[in-house]
Amino acid sequence: MQLYVMRHGEAGWDAASDADRSLTPMGAAAVRAMLMVHKDQLKAVSAVVSSPYLRARQTAALAADTLSVPTLLPDAAFVPESSVGDALVQLELLPWQGLLLVAHQPLLGNLIAALVTGDARYAEPMEPGSLAILELDWPAAGLARLVTKLSA
Question: Whole-model pTM?
Answer without folding.
Answer: 0.97
